[in-house]
Predict the structure.
Amino acid sequence: MITVLVIDDDFRVARIHSAFIDRIEGFRTIGVANTGQEAIRLAVALVPDLILLDLYLPDVFGLDVLNRMRVAGVEGDVIVISAANESETVERAVKLGVVNYLLKPFTQADLVARLQDYRTTQAARRPKTMSDQAAIDQMLGRTDSVRSDPLPKGLSAETAESILAALEAAQTELSAQECADAVGIARVSARRYLEFYAGQGRLVVSLRYGARGRPERRYTIAPTDS
């Protein structure tokens, strides 16, 4: 069963979406939020598999809500449902790793198609779980795996190895976006792996300051004692 958190500023629309989702086989609504702050609180508390995210919320812009969720450790996939069609907004949503983007107004058939596509994608991804790979590594007697420190929930051992391999191949500092491009994943996903290994001491983080905005975090393999 795929659990869903519905976020929409209009409580009537949110209830309609919720009731409709509950009629689709394999999906169940576990929460409804009408503000950004409420959305973050429910996402952390309920741990949904999928989040339907409106962008025009009364207190916080939806993509900023998504960013705060990720910082808080929320790992659920996100489908944006919004009237926002500016290219900058769509591009930012893609960089934040949303799995789909549905423009309002849309029909029930449009929503069904997105949800069924998501369910199919989830079914295809299911066999490639970390626990399966860990079991294989144990059978093969691998002791040098990147899983010497267990990866957090939602991180793939295969992707973790690709991230470290990209850094080793570069032999220089890389940003999260550069790692993401090298591995073929979203920047927000790459950063989760990078920050995990930085916390484990396997990567060194440096800051590159630009003309404006926040400094860019850059990562390199930590030197080993030899």
In short: The chain has two domains: 2-125, 136-221. The CA atoms of residues 94 and 186 lie 8 Å apart.
